[in-house]
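Q: Could you fold this chain for me?
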Amino acid sequence: MTVTADDIRGAAAQIAGEVVRTPLVSAKRLGEILGCELYLKLENQQYTGSFKDRGALLKLKSLTAEQAKNGVIAMSAGNHAQGVAYHARRLGIPATIVMPEFAPVTKVERTKNLGARVLQTGDTLDASAVSAREIGAKENLTFVHPYDDPLIVAGQGTIGFEMLEDQPELDTIVVPIGGGGIISGIATAAKSIKPDLRMIGVEAELFPSMYQTIRGLPTASGGNTLADGIAVKNPGVLTREIIERLVENIVLVDETLIETAVHTLVEEQKIVAEGAGAAGIAAILKEPARFAGRKVGVVICGGNIDVRLLSWVLARGLVRDGRMVRLRIGIVDRPGVLAQVAQLIGETGGNIIEVYHQRLFFDVPAKQADVDAVVETRNAAHVEEIIAALKAQGFPTRVLSSRSDEGRPPSANLMTK
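A: Sure. Below is the predicted structure, expressed as structure tokens.
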């Protein structure tokens, strides 16, 4: 069993007008930073915020009248859940979604708000899948797999035709991999038009299941990843065959790169992406030479990131770039000294966000104190300027927060200059 380009053309006709025909936008500013001609396929603009709308709709439209009446069941950490719930409600099909206990609160609430019955069980997606199949068999519900289904793959593959229709000169397409449904579909569609087009997959280092499987390596996945949308321990059987045949390579990206990619998309392109959605940018940050000078299409596969988590990612990015630091400053504890410190920081262009006066719980003499100041700065060089100014006036100062570029990819460092 496999999926053909004709299957995907048929899928495109069936779902036309019922999902968003998302734009492929030129990302000139970010492309200049990364050293390639970059285009972003904005699947985060689907109604439910991810590409999952496509395959879910196609699968639901394939049901018999009896199956539709009985209802469907799916397991998902969030995006597939919302796609199934939304289109099931549109089509009048009862939907039950089994979500793992770690599923983001925002995705759980949105799925409920879309009319689905949500059951949270299992500490992994695989455990949720077992429960979903058991419940489905008991209640005579049709199981809607998130990736290992020809109809799901065909639905997601419509993205590939759209990308080449909008930009026929693309020579490389980068797609995140969880179970492999989206990259399998896109590769099948795109390479039917341009056989020499390079397909590059991306997985989180903590969940390299497809990378390991196609190389015959022991599979070992787990951990807390920002890219929860591609945190899959057991990739698909159907998708594995397609990926082995059509995908050139899979890049593994660590959590720092994923964070940097989310931050960079917001700052440079004003695009909000979840961790999985930004994984393609993380791959280019990791291996810029692989993409240098090429016409690269990156699928921003989802934008369903919790607002609080996004705020933390952005703040951590400022710290990494040296644009926000926590300084510990030694002072003599007497009136007017703190004002002097604040004036020095202000004169050098720093903006004090928070101040903590440490007297009681530090090993300092009774007439002295440590002041911890969180300061907004321009860059790492500006931090050094502020520290030098404080030391010159007799205030010993050191950085408490990390702002080192050590271990960051060269392209990522370009964004801090």
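A (continued): Residues 267 and 314 are 9 Å apart (CA to CA).
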